[in-house]
Amino acid sequence: MARQHTRTGGKAANTITYERYGKTCVRSKQSKVRQTPAMKKRSSNFAIASKAARISWLFMAPLFTRKDGTRYIRLTGAFSSWLKGKDLENMTPGEMDYVKGFVINPEKQVGNKWGEHISVTRNDTGIQITILQIDPAVVMTLPKHTAYIKITIASLFIGLPEASSYQAVSSSLTINCNKVFSATNVQHDLDPVPGSVILCGYNIECLDAYLHTVPVRKKFCLPGTIVYADWVAV
């Protein structure tokens, strides 16, 4: 015997009729959400923050060596907090709150004072990173079997709002933990366009006498931070 199936659906006034699991159901139409100018600005700024975050972790990859599924979300949040509901054209040039000081590795960091020994300044050709004289054993708590410290420094500029222009540079230094390290300068040549974010951060890796990576305790991580974030106004 043939079976006949009847499907019901349609709109009437402020209701919608539809079929679900063989039953006819009715629901009210969703009213149109009207966005205020402030809501639209937050939405567009979130899109800008999302682009900036994606470019940052893609092109500062030498810093994001640790597996971390939250980095994109956390970076987007940092850029969003800096932008808030403002127009880029009205953003004050200079240091970017929330982005500067962004902790790259989310777990509890091994005790360190690296941030106090790294400074960044802009010059005519880009930025100069200065690593002050340090005693590695004093600057941070060294995991067992550490003989060397590898510090990686990465810099990046991103043109906003489209994030269609960018340039990245990275350098690395290997420091003997049994000696006091003399101060040194590292130059990263960048040519940012007006309306750019300039970022610079570092990441630390501990190595043994054979230059193999030394593991740290579970739920701990080695230092990694964005120490410089500057907005070059339009």
Structure explained in plain terms:
By secondary structure, the chain is an alpha+beta fold. It has helices at residues 37-59, 71-83, 136-139, and strands spanning 10-12, 15-20, 23-28, 94-95, 108-109, 118-123, 126-131, 148-159, 166-176, 184-189, 196-207, 220-221, 224-232. The chain has one domain (37-232): Immunoglobulin-like (Sandwich). The protein contains three helices and 13 strands; from the N terminus they run βββααββββαββββββ. β1 (10-12) and β2 (15-20) form a beta hairpin. Residues 1-9 have low confidence and may be disordered. α1 crosses α2. The relative contact order is 0.18. The N and C termini lie far apart (75 Å). The strands form four sheets. The chain has a five-stranded antiparallel beta sheet with strand order 4-13-11-8-9, covered by helices on one side. A three-stranded antiparallel beta sheet has the order 1-2-3, with no helix packed on it. The protein has a three-stranded antiparallel beta sheet with strand order 6-7-10, with no helix packed on it.
Quick tags:
Immunoglobulin-like, alpha+beta, 234 residues, five-stranded antiparallel sheet, 13 strands, 17% helix, 3 helices, disordered N terminus, three-stranded antiparallel sheet
Task: Provide a compact summary of the structure.
The protein has 3 helices and 13 strands, in the order βββααββββαββββββ. The chain is an alpha+beta fold.
Topology, element by element:
Blueprint: E1 10-12, E2 15-20, E3 23-28, H1 37-59, H2 71-83, E4 94-95, E5 108-109, E6 118-123, E7 126-131, H3 136-139, E8 148-159, E9 166-176, E10 184-189, E11 196-207, E12 220-221, E13 224-232
Parallel strand pairs: 5-12
Antiparallel strand pairs: 1-2, 2-3, 4-13, 6-7, 7-10, 8-9, 8-11, 11-13
